[in-house]
Amino acid sequence: MALNALIVDDEEYSRKSLYFLLQEHCPEVVVEGIAKSVAEAREQIREQSLNLIFLDIAMPKESGFDLLPDLEGKNIMVIFTTAYDQYALKALKASAIDYLLKPIDIDELKLAVKKAGERVELKSKNVVDAGDTLHDYAVNNSLQANGENKITLTHTNGFDVIDTADIVYIEADSNYSVFHLQNNEKIIISKPLKEFEEMLDRQNFVRIHKSVIVNFRYVKGYSHKNGLQVLLDDKTSLPVSRRRSNEFQEKAKAYFKS
Fold first, then answer.
1. Where is the Response regulatory domain (predicted)?
2. DSSP assigned state of 236
3. 106-124 vs 12-25: helix axis angle to the nearest 10?
4. Has residue 129 been placed in a domain?
């Protein structure tokens, strides 16, 4: 399914570079327009039928974030493209499909485009029943599909359906929950950690800290050498609170025994 895209960037080199990368490596993307500013982007959004925007952040007069209110209520996904990594968390909280650092890596670009395509395909298959609103669907955040555990993560641009087995861990960030997935993707949801603790399988997931839920599938070890810590396959270390350490150890024994 074609992705009708708009490129928004104030730098000519970046605009052309991204255009040619898309032409060569992402044939499913049809570049419908190119804008040099947020103001130009607004005009093209009104004139074009779009479902994807490659959006630079640091631009004169208005930043890429200033365009986001204009996208509310529209089925337009955003992939941020920027030379500055300090915007990553804000971009993720804005429910962007992805966040690409310049110079753009071809493999990362292809992965971001693939995620956008999968989201369009999901919507085209009417995962939400015709009579349901997205909000109604979001009330039931977990489901069974083809015998596998799935969870639906809703955000301002729609929703993602993911395998719970792909969740490495979830951490709290203020009133948000940050999902860390096995492909290094992050999804930020504006719900507290407690809601997900209640819906996830308690045999496979355990809350080890007030700010962390971990999937036993990715646990490699446990250490109290430098404070209580859970060690993951990817060498990530996560803190374990003292009041939750006994529960974690008991559940770990049961999980790894089975």
1. 4-117
2. -
3. 70
4. no
Domain check: are 58 and 171 in the same one? Answer: no
From residue 129, give the alpha-carbon distance in Å to each of 22, 58, 110. Answer: 33, 39, 30
The pLDDT value recorded for residue 158 is 65
CA–CA separation, 203 and 206 (whole Å): 8
Verify that 103 and 214 share a domain, yes or no.
no
Kindly calculate the radius of gyration of the chain based on its CA atoms and give it in whole angstroms.
20
Residue 228 lies in a domain: yes
Q: What is the pLDDT of residues 220-249, one digit of tens each?
A: 999 887 789 999 999 999 999 999 999 999
Quote the domain boundaries for residue 101.
Answer: 3-124
Sheet holding 3-8, edge to edge: 29-35, 3-8, 52-56, 77-82, 98-101
3-17, 52-66, 73-87: segment of lowest average pLDDT: 73-87
- For 3, the enclosing helix (H) or strand (E) is strand 3-8
| Residues 66 and 89 occupy one common structural domain | yes
Residues 6+ apart with CB under 8 A from 101: 82, 83, 85
Q: What are the backbone angles phi and psi of residue 19, rounded to the nearest 5°?
A: -60, -50
Question: What is the residue-averaged pLDDT of the chain?
Answer: 84
What is the helix, strand, coil percentage profile of the chain, to 5? 35, 35, 30
Is residue 210 included in any domain, yes or no? yes
